[in-house]
Amino acid sequence: MIVSAHLQQLMPEFLAYARSITSASDSAEDLVQDAIERALRSNNKPDVLDQLRPWMFRVIRNLHYDELRKLRVRREYSAGMGRLSEESMQTGDHARDVLIRRAFEKLPPDTREVLFLVDIMGLKYAEAAKVMDVPNGTVMSRLSRARRALLELVEGPSEDRKSNGR
């Protein structure tokens, strides 16, 4: 209960900080609400006011930058999909698009997951590793195998890959 009282006491400061890093007051209020929700669920939150205050500022900041990153990835994905659509309309290679999508669907779920997170959503290896709860190196090796598997489904096994024992 002490933490709840501290959070209530610090609420004006949290809102002021959130407003300073966001562009809209509605966004700031949502950001603070999300941060407080996260703080209340956390088992590692500080109990002392002097420690809780900077900790909450970090939570607010991290949530804000996470949201900005998500928006950037969504914009890049949308722009990329727009480019792909334009390219396929210009080249008229709808059959290849369908082939790639069908090949993607044939891949095992863990293979599709790593391709989706890194190649489609644009997550960095470390971010994908956190999502999948695996080491960074595992993401890199899974991604390499997934790309190779997709390529083989789309283009068939190449002579170069066969001769290298892949």
TrEMBL record:
Keywords: Sigma factor, Transcription, Transcription regulation. InterPro entries: RNA_pol_sigma-70-like, RNA_pol_sigma-70_dom, RNA_pol_sigma70_r2, RNA_pol_sigma70_r4_t2, RNA_pol_sigma_r2, RNA_pol_sigma_r3/r4-like, WH-like_DNA-bd_sf. GO terms for biological process: DNA-templated transcription initiation. Residues 8-72 form the RNA polymerase sigma-70 region domain. One of its GO terms (molecular function) is DNA binding. The keyword S-adenosyl-L-methionine does not apply. Residues 99-150 form the RNA polymerase sigma factor 70 region 4 type domain. Belongs to the sigma-70 factor family. ECF subfamily. This is RNA polymerase sigma-70 factor (ECF subfamily). It comes from Litoreibacter halocynthiae. The lineage of its organism: Bacteria, Pseudomonadati, Pseudomonadota, Alphaproteobacteria, Rhodobacterales.
